[in-house]
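Hey, weird one. I pasted the Succinate--CoA ligase [ADP-forming] subunit alpha sequence into the form twice and got a warning about non-standard characters only the second time. First submission, copied straight from the form history:
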Amino acid sequence: MAIFLNENSKVIVQGMTGSEGMKHTRRMLKAGTEIVGGVNPRKAGTKVDVDGVSLPVFASVQEAISETGANASVVFVPPAFSKAAVIEAIDAEIELVIVITEGIPVHDSVTFWNYAESKGNKTRIVGPNCPGIASPGKSNAGITPADITGSGPIGLVSKSGTLTYQLMYELRDIGFSTSVGIGGDPVIGTTHIDCLKAFEEDPETKAIVMIGEIGGDAEERAAEYIKNHVTKPVVGYIAGFTAPEGKTMGHAGAIISGSAGTADSKKEALEAAGVKVGKTPSETARLMREVVENL
């Protein structure tokens, strides 16, 4: 099985006709994703040929759903137009919207996240500023490389795209049920906790890798959730052990406030919840190998 995205997912691409949208639509198709069309009001009614696959372009997400039965969307829309694109997807009540776009103003993210809540959270938002979701052998929605790993028993949730790819590659011989890149912005939709809950409930996920980073308290809250609700083994990694104190590093969400938000404080919280925490990505992979060998 997989979480959030599987072989039955019918995916549309908002912004498919742009350069990034087209590049990654081509890559997702090669990965076996069932892409059923794109959305661009200015090009509605046309068709786009992608390596021999003819994909219709719709005027709206609602029209795409009505015509194709789409239940997931990947957003490759420039930052200035992303809020409107996500709100359109929420209004259409699509089940899943994955927002790849980087550089969306935080106020816009707050707006569409609150809007989703006001509509009863019928649409799961992943991102923004994320690599998307990959369920190897089933579907791949976003920018995660499809050829770096196979299917297997590990679930992965990560703030960092690059570290997602590294862990997937280092553990490629074991494989993954689903990898969810949740994004590193201060305001995101799906959280570590949401993914931990889903992996805990997925019978084919046997162990979980959780990648966090300095700043905020998301990892501390995840540690509390693991302690109280997760029975499967969890291995963690926190990016930023060597970051200078007081510096804002990398992602917009990586802001340290006092002692909270440091790599050490997150490591302590996770270890107190029974999570094995690696000091490097490679050590984290080694710890997961030990866990899988003992399952």
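That's the output from the first submission. The warning seems to come from a hidden character in my clipboard, not from the data itself. The chain has a mean pLDDT of 94.
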